[in-house]
Amino acid sequence: MVIILMSVQIGQKAPNLKVSKWVQGMDTNLDKQNDNIVVVEVFQVNCPGCFAYGIPESIEIYNKYKSDGVSVLGMATAFEDFDKNTIENLQLLLQTGETIGETKKMLSQYGEGDKISYKIPYPVAMDSLIKQSGEASKEKMDSLIKNQIPNFDEQPEDYRKQIYDRVKDYFSSKEFSAETFEMYALPGTPSSILVDRKGILRDITFGQNGLLESKIQTLLNE
User: Which terminal Cβ of the chain has fewer Cβ within 10 Å, N or C?
Assistant: First the structure.
């Protein structure tokens, strides 16, 4: 059976996160947030940028707006380094604060040693990972490419072939497919998914741009 994950669009209803397990906090999802604005912080355990930027920003937002109708959820995913971005290492992080791999190296440079200097206070889940059986379908490759290159069909044939070959190689090297990561067509980690009170997807932010809080404030004022 081939599972084709359709990406969602900003302005449409945000589908529930695909969760293998809530590792911290009670089982929940987007449709259980009591009409709150929702921020989903998507990260990888072995992702220095997630711990330098994404997670600290989401903790700050949680502490600042948790009484104002804003929910924050964490989603650990894996699109690379499948031996490190595991549920076991996520549990280690949440239970003891201990980090691994490149994250540990980065934090050590700032004098944090083996442990992060904060605890993640909001519910955190592990993305649903599906074992890959080989080559991806054309529909799945098309979905990924056209979300990244909207005018792909207008490009020269040689360019389109090069992109298809790269995407084919990417999928053939993957051990797992991360359902939430792919459903939302996220470009990488850290990424933030922003959903309004009506459950509509309003924004997806990749990396650090300093605009997430202002977007939350805009939604609070609607």
Answer: N
